[in-house]
């Protein structure tokens, strides 16, 4: 019996790609005109098929009537995933929403290849949840259910950094895949022999990625302008207390933004503004929730992060005109480094732990293969170079290495 038709899918927190092997080479599906990666974003609107990818982001920017969502992968393994809720008059849950996204990926791959894919080989982070083994195990069960609901009859999983090993250029010696994505940081230590044979020595990872960088930048640099840390008067007395953090924390967290548009959160924001010592700040919070500007704000923070990373501007700023004409806040590289430093430390620790599990000294690593959008942050590269001082750094194909590896491994996944 021939092997089932299997599509390799890198379902990422921020971006998704899919492909097949053509001979010995990966071939990625053109998901949108001229693009092999698709933003993992959906736009849910009344009585219309769900829009996904850049079309979803355009709908958000146009201010179309509907609900935009991003970073849905971060909900896998959490109780929020299976809670029934009404979105635009339709009763659904996030398993169904992710399934509709994956069904669309399947359908685009089938149109592009004139084949029918019954099976999927999906990437998964080494740990969806690094601090909670029960959630970590549940997340894979959840993702499997999403693939089955999307119309695949079976799915297998491969650790994302191990997929990236398969697409790495062969070179004898010890290498470390450093995959820093939107939601997780993943590491695989591998050894290649002179005949090109590859051995995986250890894989490890943690739930920390670019969306967490956005969150921390937002909490420290943007949320204070909306009243975070600002004093709220007691309704019955003279004393004041700092505003509670929950609304600000959720507003800074990509996968939580949509939940803030419920009536109770809007009411809580209005209450805070009513008793605020600085109402001009809390009124911005009220406006963001009432006008559903949370994702626009998160995009502004993400753009500010990418700009601060690669700019030679004298005074780089996060542009907040979405909140108020002319409003912005400074974010230069040193400020961003200070904000991200504790997380860089955790990432380096996790990389060091990967090497320790194979009992290997970091000085023996000869190549660092940087993968994932957040590996483009200069502080990530600096931290890893510091850990592995003798390694050459490679970052070709950072955005497609995982998908390429899944595409290459797909034909034999169910054979
Ligand atoms: N030039 C850049 N500098 C810093 N960060 C960047 C840059 N370009 C993209 N990013 C960040 O990279 C992240 C997306 O990376 P990627 O597409 O590899 O993630 P993913 O594969 O979807 O996520 P994961 O594998 O964690 O599920 C986003 O957080 C984005 O802001
Ligand atoms: Mg990824």
Quick take:
The chain is α+β, with helices and mostly antiparallel strands. Helix content is 39%, strand content 22%. The site of magnesium ion has 5 residues, from loops.
Kindly describe this structure.
By secondary structure, the protein is an alpha+beta fold. It has three domains: 6-165 and 401-413, 2-Layer Sandwich (Nucleotidyltransferase, domain 5); 171-209 and 342-394, ATPase, nucleotide binding domain (Nucleotidyltransferase, domain 5); 211-337, no CATH class. The chain is 39% helix and 22% strand. It contains twelve helices and 20 strands. Strands 1, 2, 3, 4, 10 and 11 form a six-stranded mixed beta sheet that branches. A five-stranded mixed beta sheet has the order 14-13-12-19-20, sandwiched between helices. A three-stranded antiparallel beta sheet has the order 6-5-7. The longest helix is centred in the C-terminal third of the chain and has 25 residues, at 333-357. The protein starts with 5 loop residues before the first strand and ends with a helix. The structure holds adenosine-5'-triphosphate and magnesium ion. Adenosine-5'-triphosphate binds next to helix 5 and helix 9.
């Amino acid at each position: 019996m021939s092997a089932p038709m299997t599509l390799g899918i890198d379902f990422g927190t921020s971006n998704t790609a899919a492909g097949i092997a053509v001979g010995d080479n990966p071939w990625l599906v053109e998901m949108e005109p001229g693009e092999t990666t698709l933003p993992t974003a959906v736009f849910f609107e009344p009585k219309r098929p769900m829009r996904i990818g850049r079309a979803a982001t355009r709908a958000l920017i146009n201010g179309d009537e509907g609900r935009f969502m991003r970073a849905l992968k971060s909900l896998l393994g959490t109780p929020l995933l299976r809670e029934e809720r009404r979105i635009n008059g339709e009763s659904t849950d996030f398993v169904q929403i992710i399934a509709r996204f994956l069904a669309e990926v399947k359908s685009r791959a089938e149109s592009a290849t004139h084949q029918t894919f019954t099976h999927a080989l999906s990437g998964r982070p080494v740990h969806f949840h690094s601090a909670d083994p029960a959630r970590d195990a549940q997340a894979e069960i959840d993702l499997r259910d999403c693939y089955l609901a999307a119309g695949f009859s079976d799915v297998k999983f491969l650790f994302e950094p191990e997929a990236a090993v398969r697409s790495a250029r062969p070179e004898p010696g010890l290498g470390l895949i450093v995959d820093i994505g939107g939601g997780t940081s993943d590491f695989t230590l591998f050894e290649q022999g002179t005949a090109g044979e590859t051995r995986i020595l250890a894989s490890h990872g943690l739930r920390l990625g670019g969306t967490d960088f956005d969150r921390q930048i937002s909490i420290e640099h943007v949320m204070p302008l909306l009243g975070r840390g600002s004093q709220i008067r007691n309704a019955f007395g003279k004393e004041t207390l700092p505003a509670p953090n929950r609304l600000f924390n959720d507003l800074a967290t990509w996968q939580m933004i949509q939940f803030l548009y419920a009536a109770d959160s809007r009411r809580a924001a209005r209450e805070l503004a009513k008793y605020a010592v600085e109402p001009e700040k809390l009124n911005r919070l009220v406006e963001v929730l009432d006008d559903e500007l949370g994702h626009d704000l998160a995009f502004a923070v993400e753009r500010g992060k990418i700009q601060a990373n690669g700019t030679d501007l004298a005074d780089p700023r996060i542009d907040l005109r979405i909140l108020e004409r002319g409003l912005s806040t400074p974010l230069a590289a040193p400020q961003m480094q200070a904000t991200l430093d504790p997380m860089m430390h955790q990432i380096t620790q996790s990389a060091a732990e990967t090497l320790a599990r194979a009992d290997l000294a970091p000085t023996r690593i000869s190549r660092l293969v940087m993968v994932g959008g957040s590996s483009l942050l200069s502080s990530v590269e600096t931290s890893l170079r510091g850990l592995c001082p003798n390694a050459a750094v490679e970052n070709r194909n950072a955005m497609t290495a995982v998908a390429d590896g899944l595409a290459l491994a797909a034909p034999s996944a169910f054979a």
